[in-house]
Amino acid sequence: xxxxxxxxxxxxxxxxxxxxxxxxxxxxxxxxxxxxxxxxxxxxxxxxxxxxxxxxxxxxxxxxxxxxxxxxxxxxxxxxxxxxxxxxxxxxxxxxxxxxxxxxxxxxxxxxxxxxxxxxxxxxxxxxxxxxxxxxxxxxxxxxxxxxxxxxxxxxxxxxxxxxxxxxxxxxxxxxxxxxxxxxxxxxxxxxxxxxxxxxxxxxxxxxxxxxxxxxxxxxxxxxxxxxxxxxxxxxxxxxxxxxxxxxxxxxxxxxxxxxxxxxxxxxxxxxxxxxxxxxxxxxxxxxxxxxxxxxxxxxxxxxxxxxxxxxxxxxxxxxxxxxxxxxxxxxxxxxxxxxxxxxxxxxxxxxxxxxxxxxxxxxxxxxxxxxxxxxxxxxxxxxxxxxxxxxxxxxxxxxxxxxxxxxxxxxxxxxxxxxxxxxxxxxxxxxxxxxxxxxxxxxxxxxxxxxxxxxxxxxxxxxxxxxxxxxxxxxxxxxxxxxxxxxxxxxxxxxxxxxxxxxxxxxxxxxxxxxxxxxxxxxxxxxxxxxxxxxxxxxxxxxxxxxxxxxxxxxxxxxxxxxxxxxxxxxxxxxxxxxxxxxxxxx
Length: 588
Ligand code: ADP
Ligand code: MG
Description:
single chain; alpha/beta; Rossmann fold; six-stranded mixed sheet; four-stranded antiparallel sheet; 12 strands; about 55% helix; binds adenosine-5'-diphosphate
């Protein structure tokens, strides 16, 4: 077993927690209980906000749905708290699902704004439904019992809380290192790249939103059966902001940061409650001010939170994941010469500008087709239309017999189209290996549950070996565990090619792959592309370097001002007078 500072710290923490109820005063145990319960909510926020980039200002309301459901079921309904938990999870999960379905397609600031709206809305429901006791809330909530042993005391429920925190941390950590976890970690930094790898972003967002809600529900359940009483006030907007603060303090993208953040905020609140009454009569208001200032300072100066400060002293040492001898199974490619892509009369406008104007061309499998033309000719736009990154305004695009004109980007990727981008789209804070593993998403199956429960280890090992093979193929295997952001731009382009290859594509679409490469690197890339063609992979390529294109492609399509100017073998296109005039400036 690998010995590390992290493991040692973890062991000490677990031991400390196990002994706490035996040695610590009851008040400390109560605080620790609040820390554990808050950490569950903060963990959900780390997942959706810190890692996934979806800010929720309504998380306390979801805690409330869990708390009220179980309180109501166990008081009015007389059910056991364990059935209450099941109902709390179901009710909160369903609520989050519906809220998510209604709001997660919102762009920019509208999504966080909508969370404020439903957060406040749910709070007012609690305060106004007579069956839930309105502002008085519900009393006489029973304690949880385990095998007939009552957890009525704070010292007893302490163990249940921290066991649940431990399990939640473990499952979340497993999930984040899995296939779906890589997609979650990729959510921040633009949607197009992930969708081009076959990821259904909306679904991923919805699932992590529901997972965070389930963590909130569990926290609400523990809270209500610990206090034996529930009222609306802990579920308004202010505690929601405190939960966000917890996620920020610990380190927005670190799951252990959730516990550190929860501890910091709960203890700070406790101190402030002692101190602030001496400073002002309006202690509660002053507390909000202190927290707001803290939040702003954190956002300005320490986005990484406590965990990133810790990382400065103890850098993470990623271990090479287990890799299987055999990679992922490959698709059977259609025989060479099969009609592959048909672009017919395609048109795309940007306002008054027609970027692609009634363009038609076709390509067959086993071919390298070059798309050339001056800057602004519409080449990248054409690629975006083919891959589904942009919808076309008219025309038809058929890929391997399927009409893909109106198909979503991730569905087109699943049919076997992989691409790179003119402006490189990588996840700089992820390793080269993880970036290439993202490419295997479309070929692998593991779901969220399999990832969280580590049932995906075989597939992960095979995907890793596949990704390593592609990294090796482009000459970057030695840097597999480096962060992608540390690579020079030329190598980042090559890394994108490896990621595209990891998808086992039928057609690979490359937008200026040789830009920024030095001559020997260009030669290596040309050699790689020829070897791909020999393997039966078809290539569609935009490139500016004429030497590079002429020696490589089977055919060329020339575009200028959005229209197709010429099409044919490289030599014929080079000799075409119109092409010389428009593109080569008459000096071919
Ligand atoms: P190329 O890749 O051949 O250099 P592009 O396809 O990037 O050309 O651009 C074609 C034209 O469309 C250019 O005039 C460009 O400014 C315009 N264009 C491209 N994308 C957009 C966009 N998202 N919004 C507005 N105009 C765009
Ligand atoms: Mg371009």
